[in-house]
Every structure is written in structure tokens, then in C-alpha cells.
């Protein structure tokens, strides 16, 4: 049979009857067909007579058919004989990620769960030597049966003539693009996939939290580690699908459609045939399908009789020790001559008050004078994470005085309640030329924050100490001049530590 005669009604391998032409591009045509032996729909790719990569496509399909991960499209047949080449695979019905994003981003953890399933499946494929290289929202499907399917493994790349010197990294970035799309409803890729393009900031793709409110910080960081191949929160880039799968391992997964008639109270789980855990849910996950996922707190530990006896003994011993100590101190004080006691008191200096570290509740970029009133809020927590390798930084400006756009910009800490501020230690990095002010107040408004300390020409570790007692709920590190950075000017804070006066 010549490829030019392929049309609706054509039967391939005396079994697969072509019914509806779904898509045609570049000499490859996708059909919805019927497997007449098993009476089930299948997807069939056929190819024009001059299609140049038939052998590559058939080889890729045969390799993909050896994989058993149910999250990957199953290949049933692939052949190139008698002038006819075709690939027969599973027909998948459901909503693609592109369909789910028609009305905007979906619930963050649901989107992350879909990508997590794809990452695990792709990690198994890479272990077998197969790659995808064309991960788009249209190729990730939430099926009508309540499972995840990743379409086009190996075959898409062969059809489109895609290759990569670093296929693991390319697929990790592809998973990052899918996660970005799920979280924002925008596409950070170079080609049109049916979604609006990701917005840019200084020529760089905005992070998910810059685009969409409510994106959890850890998902924002995972996306950037995969998509941008950058370290975030002290963690390295995600360079392989296995890395992405591991990073998303703790995301709650949507449960599959129930396949048992057991009463719901039994809360049974079904296992994937190959043990890969597609439909296996953690014990704390509900058994219903959908985006709403709740966590059940772990059971409270039980205290046995032996533990109660031991606790009672310990309490009695402590009480006895306190009583003996008090009696000893009282006796010594009573036997001390008054003159000696008064002399020791006059000669001994009063103990110094040691400052104590107060942990902020949150941190955010503070830009009340800017047009968008935000300054890298998505990375602000990195300045209080206790890791000197991570940082918050301002946008880049054309001059040290913030391009004459505004008087200042900074990082504001919410202490959770009014605290007494003894000093604030700020790690600014090695670049000199910063002018930073310490402002403290009881409201996150510039007019309510009073300047209590300032350092000019600052760099490295800087201690900002108020001249008099200062109390407030909000602590602001305010840049009025910025150090140079890559031909422009940018303020950087690696870590901030707030100290309160300690007790004597």
C-alpha cells in the first residue's frame, strides 16, 4: 500500500482501521483509529512518502514500547514495510495541562503533583536511555480515568528531529517549564504552545511568585532550580528528571479514580502493577480525586505507666535538689560578715547584659516608592534562612542613587510583635559603596519607620546600632546608595540578624 492512499477507512496490519484525522504537520499525520481485534480506540501516526525520518521514528517507538511505566503512553505496534510506515499507541482521553490552564493557573500543589508524576516517569525513561526533548502542556494529560499520562516519549523527538548534547538537562528544564506553566498560566519557552508568554524582568523570566500570588516559596524555588538551572535556597540546580522528581517527592498527589466497591471507611489503596506507585497514596492523603488535598495530623504518642512513674521520680529529685540548694545559699549568706558582703558588692562590677537573637517571622522586599511597590519579594526569605550562601537583592539600576527613580529601597522584617532592638547585623557582600539605614517602627509604612542608625560606604558584615533604646515590630534595612554590580548597581543582603538586649 502506498502512503498516498492512506485515508479514513484504511486498515493497517489487517487490524487498525483509521477513522478520524486529528493532526497533520511536516509529513506526519495523527489519526484516531480502531483496533478491530480488541475493539478499542488507538492513536496511529502515519507518514508521507517523502518523510525523511521514518526509520528513526519506528526505532524510537519500538524502544519506547519496552517501558512499562503506566504514566508513559504505551506503544502497541511500529512498522515500516510494504511502503507503509506507522506507529500505533495508546489513545489517551482526558484534559491536558493546556486544557486545565484555559482559565488561568491551577491550584499550585495540584499542578506540582502532575509535574511530579511526569518527572518520576521521565526519570525511569532516562534510566532506560530514552528522552523526551519536547515537553509541552499539551503532552501532559490528566486522564478521564484519574491518572497522569505523559505523551510522546522518544517518538516526538524523532518526528520533529530534535536532539541535545545534554538530554537530561534539557528534559529537566522542560519539566521546569511545565511546572512554571502550571503555577502561572504562562509559558517560559521559546515557541508558542497556546499559553501567553512568561513576563520578563530586566530581560530575565519573572519567577512564579512574581507572576502569581499565593505560589508557595518551595515550589517557586524548585521551578527556578529546574527551569533556570540556578541554585535557590542553598540548593543546587536540578540537572536531571530524577533530580526534579526527588525535589517534588513530598508534594501530595491527587488520588486516582476509585476502582473498588469497598466502603469508603476502609480507605483502601490500589498499587500500580509494576510497583512504581502511580496510584499509591501516602497514608495521610484522602482517597477522593481532585485538587483539594488535606493532611491528617499524626497520632499523639501514648504515655505508658512506666513513663509516668519515671516522670514522677524525676520531679521529686529536682524538688529535693532545689530545696538543698536554697538551704545552702541561705546558710552561707547568713554567715557572711556584713562588711565583707558590702565590700564585694562595691568591688564587683554588675554583670553585662548579653544580646539575644530574635528570629523574624517573615521578610519581604520593600519598595513603597516604586511603580510596582515590590522589590524581589520572592527571594526575600533567603536573607533570614541562616544560610550565608543565599541572598536577597534589589533590582539592577543604572546608577548608585537608584537611577534617580526613588530615594531608597530595602528589605523589611516582620518580627511578629514589638521587640527591643539592640543592634542589627547585616551581611552585604564584598562590593563597597552601599549606604544603608536601619529603620524601626510599628507599621510597615515608610512614614511610620524611624531611622535609628546609618552606615555609609558599607560592605561586608555591618552592625547597625541605635543610639538610644528602640522598639518596634518592623525592622527595615534601607538602601539609599547601591554598590556596583556587573556594570550596573544592585544592593545585596546575604543574611540579617536582629539582636535584643538580654537579661543580666
Automatic annotation (TrEMBL):
Point to the regions of Low complexity compositional bias: 254-266
Which stretches of sequence are listed as region Disordered? Answer: 254-275, 339-376
InterPro entries per record: Galactose-bd-like_sf, Kinase-like_dom_sf, Prot_kinase_dom
On whether S-adenosyl-L-methionine is a keyword of this UniProt record, the answer is no
Pinpoint the Protein kinase domain residues: 16-314
Q: Which UniProt keywords apply?
A: Receptor
Q: Please give the name of this protein.
A: Protein kinase domain-containing protein
Q: Which organism is it from?
A: Microbispora siamensis
